[in-house]
Specification:
Elements (H helix, E strand, L loop, with lengths): L1 E6 L2 E6 L16 H4 L9 E5 L5 E6 L5 E8 L13 H8 L11 H8 L5 E5 L4 E8 L2 H17 L4 H20 L2 H13 L13 H6 L2 H11 L5 E7 L3 H12 L27 E7 L4 E9 L7 H12 L5 H7 L6 E7 L5 E9 L5 H17 L4 H19 L2 H15 L2 H11 L4 H11 L5 E8 L4
Parallel strand pairs: 4-8, 9-13
Antiparallel strand pairs: 1-2, 2-3, 3-4, 5-7, 5-8, 6-7, 10-12, 10-13, 11-12
Helix pairs in contact: 2-5, 2-8, 4-9, 10-13, 10-15, 11-12, 12-16, 14-15
Length: 464
């Protein structure tokens, strides 16, 4: 539950209890201080929304020895258009190039000086995330707050750093996509699955677009998307909220939430793909030491009511050695690896089935076996005992994730960014426990059919 408390000029929200469920009990504003003392039995998170739109989540954990500090920006490759691909990921790199106050290279040196092993970042289709793991000291948290707030406001985007980083990103693309079997496989799978939506292109972008990208493109991207009202900061670990929240507030509230002119490319972003009316297929002939089969079915957006059922389906199909596809493909020696899962995206996404096989194995036979297993679920269903096993595995994985500070940060930040609030993420965890045999059968009929799928085979060059 989220309790809304008006406290001018700030709005503070608090959700209480363990992160797998809340009490459902209404809490009056006057009870805030009392309820926030339940740290020994659960997890208390305080969300502070500043007037400039930035949201700051603080989750103290007494048993932690470090602090996870993650900054989520509501921008990813879906905020690009044709011929402007790769901007979101490119800018992830630019954020480490230096500011008006902190020269290039000094960012990492200052982090190392307070005992941080270094910083990291990643870009997805829907968001860009900057990750810091630091010692649980006041000096370290103050330094990270200053560095992160500074680059949100004062980043330097000069032509020299722009050109240098473009070459770095192009080399990364060659390594990760052009010279990678998996990179080419996933790129082709998404290209087949989407006709017009920005999810169609790889997050890293196309080389032609990277070559055409201009210094002006990067500057406009920063001004438009790296604003306080698109940022969420999540701090989890060992710290005193009474010390940390005032420091965060003082440093971030002065950053203006300017609304620059919307770049032309940002006015034409597509949020929905037309329905698929046929199966799409392709074969990639590559230099590879094994074969691969990828099948993707289009599914709804992460916020859809079917997302919890899709998570259970994933566990039924491939989680654990006794899951259905592992028994059908790995135990029989037909495949060496099999994985399934939803790309939980803000707009309609994909449910993928990826299989790796030895050279010479019949991909056609393996594909047929997969469809037979899906058809069995549709016609016969999944026994309750098997569904319960899947739910227990999901619960275990989730508990393991949020037991770590960075895992809890990722869950809270992504829930806020992709779903709009943490309650929606918590609700989906609860809904997983409610999934029934009939729900899985309905999924099969609704999404897992020929017109709704894309298929990519990877075979070794010069083989039958």
């Amino acid at each position: 539950m989220i309790i809304s408390l008006s406290r001018s000029p700030y709005v503070i929200f608090v959700f209480l209890g363990t992160l797998l469920g809340c009490t459902g009990k209404s809490v009056k504003p006057s009870e805030e201080h009392q309820n926030k003392t339940f740290l020994a039995t659960g997890i208390t998170a305080t969300l502070t929304k500043l007037p400039n739109g930035i949201r700051i989540v603080t989750i103290p954990r007494a048993k932690s020895t470090t602090i996870s500090y993650q900054t989520f920006f509501n921008v990813g490759s879906k905020n690009e258009i044709h011929l402007k691909t790769g901007l979101a990921h490119f800018f992830e790199h630019m954020m480490f190039k230096g500011t008006r106050l902190v020269p290039e290279g000094e960012f990492d040196r200052q982090l190392e000086a307070v005992g941080s092993p270094g910083s990291n970042a990643y870009t997805t289709q829907d968001m860009t995330v900057y990750v810091q793991e630091i010692p649980a000291t006041l000096d370290a948290i103050k330094r990270v707050i200053e560095l992160e707030a500074d680059r949100l406001q004062n980043l330097v985007i000069d032509k020299t750093s722009f050109e240098t980083e473009r070459e770095v990103v192009k080399n990364e693309r060659r390594f990760r996509d052009e010279n990678s079997v998996d990179g080419k496989l996933y790129q082709r799978l998404f290209e087949l699955s989407y006709q017009t939506h920005p999810y169609r292109w790889p997050v890293i972008g196309y080389e032609m677009d990277l070559n055409m990208m201009s210094h002006q493109d990067a500057t406009q991207f920063y001004k438009h998307y790296y604003r306080p009202d698109r940022a969420i900061i999540v701090v989890v670990g060992k710290f005193d909220e009474s010390q940390i929240i005032p420091i965060l507030r003082e440093r971030y509230e002065s950053i203006p939430n300017d609304e620059p002119e919307i770049p032309a490319y940002a006015k034409n972003i597509i949020s929905r793909d037309p329905p698929s009316d046929r199966e799409k297929r392709d074969i990639l002939w590559l230099e590879t030491q094994n074969q691969k089969l990828a099948i993707a079915f289009k599914i709804p957006e992460l916020s859809h009511a079917d997302s919890p059922t899709l998570e259970v389906l994933q566990a039924v199909l491939s989680d654990g050695k006794n899951s259905r596809l592992k028994k059908a493909l790995i135990h029989t020696g037909l495949a060496t690896e099999v994985s399934t899962g939803s790309f939980g995206l803000q707009d309609p996404g994909l449910f993928s089935i990826i299989v790796e096989t030895p050279l010479g194995a019949s991909l056609g036979k393996i594909e047929k076996i997969i469809y037979q297993e899906l058809e069995r679920i549709k016609l016969i269903g999944v026994p309750e005992q098997e569904i319960e096993r899947a739910k227990n595995l999901i619960d275990l994985q989730f508990y393991q994730k949020i037991s770590l500070d960075h895992g809890l940060s990722e869950f809270v930040g992504s829930s806020l960014t992709l779903l709009g609030n943490v309650n929606s993420g918590l609700k989906q965890r609860d809904q997983i426990r409610e999934v029934k045999k009939e729900d899985l059968q309905r999924l099969m009929k609704t999404y897992f059919h020929g017109k709704n799928r894309s298929v990519v085979w990877v075979k070794k060059r010069n083989t039958p």
